[in-house]
Design a protein that fits this description.
Order of helices and strands: HHHHHHEE
Number of strands: 2
Largest sheet: 2 strands, antiparallel
Radius of gyration: 23 Å
Oligomer: single chain
């Protein structure tokens, strides 16, 4: 709260001028048509058309596969954020940082992770990378 309080105090004493400024920018963007075609722009401008099958496969994994159930909330956050931005007439690039979160589940998972040992499946050892968290007994 101490970090935010000077800015909040200034905004309060200046009638929240930054909110008025952002409102005017949003009104201008709507008037110029920059918020039109939100969904097509998500598919063709934000996501590379070559990577589009990977994003759809990631969403399919999150919503339809039993292995994706622990990460299903990531898919719901993506869908709800997309719907909220579309209903608020947001710009197409607002969702760009979240789009890569939906595609990694589509990639094939490695058989052994970084934190697993190849012998006996003990967690915490990875001699290939020189990392050992257990005693060398």
């Amino acid at each position: 709260m101490l970090i935010v309080s000077p800015n909040l105090w200034w905004q309060c004493h200046h009638q929240f001028v930054s909110l008025a400024w952002m409102r005017s920018i949003h009104t201008r963007d709507i008037g110029l048509g920059r918020t039109d075609y939100f969904f097509p722009n998500q598919l063709w401008k934000i996501v590379n058309p070559v990577a589009l099958p990977l994003v759809f496969a990631g969403l399919w994994f999150l919503f339809r596969r039993p292995e994706g159930k622990p990460w299903r909330m990531i898919g719901w956050i993506f869908v709800f954020t997309m719907l909220a931005l579309a209903s608020a007439r947001g710009r197409d690039y607002y969702l760009a940082p979240h789009t890569p979160c939906s595609s990694p589940p589509a990639r094939p998972a490695p058989k052994t992770g970084f934190g697993r040992s190849r012998r006996k499946g003990r967690p915490g050892t990875c001699s290939r990378h020189g990392y050992r968290s257990e005693s060398a007994a």
